[in-house]
Specification:
The chain has 157 residues and is mostly helical. It contains 8 helices and no strands.
């Protein structure tokens, strides 16, 4: 062999650059972004304060306080009124009093516990010096009623 042949050295390909990225990196970026958005959405959904959650918290606070039964009935009446004003159109709820108010509260409950049961305490107990009735039954009826409220978000969460 003749060492003087005009051969050239091996040509190496150019170094692989980092751009453009391989398709897998784009898929990974989209996947991470989707997971972040899903986590943010779930966090907001779990933290939102609904009328149902707020009303149940207030009912539990009333039950936990050591107050006179008359005061508890007064607070129950206020909590129910606030919940209705938040969950239903103001025109439908704001002017209701007496028997009409109890019938409105009975709409979501088939047993009619407000007009024919322990809910009747809401009519006159707040105005009497002593409460004569089963306050625990009234609290249970109010909790059952609150769980059937339409889900409405209150303010920012």
């Amino acid at each position: 062999m003749n060492p003087e042949l005009p051969l050239r050295d091996i040509h190496l390909p150019p170094a692989v650059g980092w751009w453009p990225l391989a398709p897998g990196w784009y898929a990974l970026a989209v996947g991470i972004l989707a997971l972040l958005l899903l986590g943010w959405w779930l966090w907001r959904r779990l933290r939102r304060v609904t009328v149902v959650k707020a009303t149940l918290r207030q009912l539990d606070a009333i039950a936990a306080r050591q107050q006179a039964p008359v005061e508890q009935v007064r607070e129950l009446a206020l909590v129910l009124r606030r919940a209705c004003l938040s969950a239903y159109p103001r025109e439908d709820v704001a002017g209701l009093t007496g028997e009409e108010w109890l019938r409105f509260l009975d709409q979501s409950l088939p047993e009619r516990p407000f007009s024919e049961g322990p809910g009747r305490l809401l009519l006159d107990a707040p105005y009497r010096p002593h409460c004569e009735g089963d306050l625990n039954a009234l609290l249970d009826v109010c909790r059952t009623w609150a769980r059937r409220l339409p889900v409405v978000t209150l303010g920012k969460a």
